[in-house]
Amino acid sequence: MNWIAEHKLDIGTRVSWFVDWLTDNASGFFDGIAWALSYLIDKLLLVLLGPPPLVVILATVALAWLVRRNWKFPLFAAIALLFVFNQGYWEETMETLSLVISSSVLCMIVGIPIGILAARSDTFYAVLRPVLDLMQTIPTFVYLIPALILFGLGMVPGLIATVIFAIPAPIRLTRLGISSTPKPLIEAGQAFGATTWQLLWKIEMPYAMPSIMAGLTQTIMLSLSMVVIAALVGADGLGVPTLRALNQVNIAKGFEVGLAIVMIAIMLDRFLKTSDGKTDR
After folding, report:
1. Which residues contact 257 (CB under 8 A, 6 or more apart)?
2. How far is CA 111 from CA 118, 170, 173, in A?
3. Given CB 3.0 to 4.6 Å as the disulfide criterion, which of 47, 53, 125, 162 pairs with 118?
4. Tens of pLDDT, residues 58-102
5. Cα torsion angle, 168, 174, 177, 180, sign
6. What is the DSSP letter of 51?
7. Is pLDDT above 90 for 55?
8. What is the pLDDT of residues 129-150, one digit of tens each?
9. Distance (Å, rounded) from C-alpha 127 to C-alpha 37?
10. Which residues touch 43 (CB under 8 Å, ≥6 apart)?
């Protein structure tokens, strides 16, 4: 046992060397990614923080009515946003929403194609599965350190860490939905001469859509759970007052911010629910 302990595998040093190599040789590439992500976040912030809060609240209520076609959800959306404004966390909430929306869009853009490919190839999924397990189980601070080195302080490293943490959900659920398509449906499409792309877009994707939407819901909830972690690397949003409340042992502030996060989480979840009677709450 002493021999095993004395011959430690030099994993940490090699990873550190690789990150240093990336910093020295690919800084332009990572600067480009940081610029693109910052641009996306800034445009979302312009949409959310540019208009007066009342305009944003009314637009959200109108959208809630269009999505659900009943008075309960629009009323809840109005109460939730008015509560956030009343507590003085409007700007932080909009910053958190920009981070959540950006990470969710990136996760779905990248995760859905990977999930489709994983459903097509068992070998690819066998290689991918331990990577997804690692992304979901490894402590966030481990990959937050290289993200901080490569992208600097601000919203971008928080966004990268959020994407790494949340992207396994859409990948797994997209694969599940595609691979669960009944064989009689696929055989019927093939009998009518459908190509592989036609089978995907007209049979498999519509059948997998509930599973994909579940992946989107999980992505949003996982992204919201990362707001405090993102604040540790300079990301704005509700994570900042949460950390301040923790450092100051301020129970009142901590409860206020936590309740604001809960309100936003419930509102986003209801936006993605179907409007039938079974899921309407």
Report:
1. 89, 92, 238, 241, 242, 245
2. 10, 5, 9
3. 125
4. 999 999 898 888 888 899 999 999 999 998 899 999 999 998 999
5. negative
6. S
7. yes
8. 999 988 888 887 777 788 888 8
9. 29
10. none
